Each structure stands twice: as structure tokens, then as C-alpha cells.
Amino acid sequence: MDGFLEDIQRIQGLSNNTITSYRCDLRTAAGMLEMSLSEVSSDDIQQFLASRNEQPGTTNRRIASLGRFFRWALDQGYVDENPVEQISARQHAEHRPQPIVSETERRALDAAIAAAGQPYRLIFTLLREIGVRTDEVLNLNMGDVILEPGRELLLVNDSKSGSKRMVVLTPDAMPRSLRGLRSWMREMEEDLPPATPLFRSSRGNRASYDTLHRRWVQVCKAARLVDIIDGREVPRYTLHHLRHTAAAELIAFYPEQVVRRILGHRDPRSTRRYAEIVRTNAAFSNGHSANGHNGNGLRANHREQQAS
């Protein structure tokens, strides 16, 4: 795998974010495809993809990553054929945001996140409260966190465009994230280089998506937000539901343009879909005023969070 990643980065000059995405996809697949490389079949890959139960976009990314890897392996003579060639991309349904609507379930999830161990408690808090993408949080470095008085922000590597964007952290809408980041940075060694991963495993490596997903399953079980499917416990919500939920709450608090910058949406229609949810769903629109700012409902909720 390392040889493949080195080759595509050297030859095609891919960004570090893209290489990280390839590495995560290949490691995830390797964890389930335990046979030798030459024995992997199309059926094996189909079963792997089906077992993940992911959104079409995520599945298509994994198909693309595996397809590129097996094309390289074929060129290198490691395999006789590319098993991914026979696998078609999943069709995208119309993208509809899916925030966690039930206030009871949101509170249960927040309590389970607050009880999780670090660094995963803070990672889940950032996903839940700010709405940044999972890989954007995992790719944060020490130098990406700025907590100067009156200038609190994150410098996020946008996973879609590859460029940096600033996410301003505000105490009214993101109190737990700010508290968590300040506490986390105080615990870090002061002389760590800016390029040091903000979230590291017990081995000192950057925290991985696979480990994060396992911790997420534990959080969902603690919150009793699991369903029994084919005899096994499956989390009712994915990590991406945290982004959708944060976006729906932020759009009830800030104008569309501000939320669009926070979320990193290139198409304003993506942000507007959350505004439509807020207008039609009482769980998010309580206290929502016509100018796009939230009234007493959400502000009261944030005051409760700050007091807790």
C-alpha cells in the first residue's frame, strides 16, 4: 500500500488530504479483506461495501480508491485482473439533509459524547457543534488552532477543495467546542511543532477514521441509539448525521452566508436545504425569526449548554 501511495503522490502530485483519504479507504478494506491480494474477487469487494452501509458518495469514493489501487497492482504484476472493474458506482439520490430531529435523542447523544474519553470526546464535540467534516477534524494540526482573545478560530483543510478555510468559533453557538479546545491545548506540550497532529492515537500517530468509528459505535450504544439489524446492533446515526444536525442548528442561529463558510459549501443550494428544514421542522425552528436568526428557543438551549 505504501508503494502505491508514494507512486501516485510522486507522479500525480496529489495533496496530502487526498493521500490520507486513499490510505483510510485502503486500510478499512484491508481490515475486512483478509485474503491475499491476488485472491480478492469482485464478490469480496461487493460484500465489503455492503457491510459498511454508507452513503452513495462515500461508497463511490471507496470504489474509486480500490479501483485505482488495483489498476496500480495490475501494472506492477501483483494481480492478474482488476476486480473493481466489474463494480458500478452507486446512484446518488437527491441529497436531503438528515439532522437528528428528536430533541430527546440529541440530548442522549450529547450526554454520551460528554462521557466519552479523550481525544474522541472533543472530536465528536467539534463534529456535533461546528459541523465540520470528519476528515477535516482528523487532519487538524496544532498550528490550525488559534485561541487568541477575540480571535478564536480553526484553520480547516477543506476536504473538497483542498484549500484552507477559516472557521470562526463563537461562544454563543459553539461553547463546548471552545471550552474543549482550550482545555486540550493547555494539556499539550508547549514546544510541539505546528504540524503536529491535533488528535493522536496512543501510539502517537494521527487518530484514524476506523478507530473513531469504533468509538462512535460505543457512544451510540451508551446513548441507546442502536437498532437490531440482522441480529446485530447497528448505530441509528452515522458521524455524518452530526454534521447535518449541527448545520440545522447553525442555520437557525446565523445567516446562510455565515453557515455556508463554516460548513465549506461551494454551492449555496447545499446550505439553503438546511434553511428549508428549519422553516418546516418545529424541532429546529422553535423561536426562528424571519431574518434567519434564531430567537429565544435556540439561544436558551445554548445558555443551558454553557451552564452545564
Proportion of strand residues: 5-15%
Helicity level: 40-55%
The CATH class name of the largest domain reads Mainly Alpha
Radius of gyration using CA atoms only: 20 Å
Average pLDDT metric: 85
Uncertain regions spanning at least 5 consecutive residues? 287-308
- From the 3D structure, determine the CATH topology of the largest domain: hpI Integrase, Chain A
- Give the N-to-C terminal Cα separation: 46 Å
Task: Please give the oligomerization state of what you see.
Answer: single chain
Overall tally of domains = 2
Compact description:
This protein has 14 helices and five strands.
Note down, in words, how this protein is organized.
The chain has 14 helices and 5 strands. It has helices spanning 2-12, 16-32, 42-52, 56-76, 103-114, 120-129, 134-138, 175-187, 209-222, 239-251, 256-263, 268-280, 282-285, 296-307; strands at residues 145-148, 151-157, 164-168, 226-229, 232-235. The strands form 2 sheets. Strands 1-2-3 form a 3-stranded antiparallel beta sheet. The termini are far apart. The model is unreliable at 287-308 (pLDDT under 50).
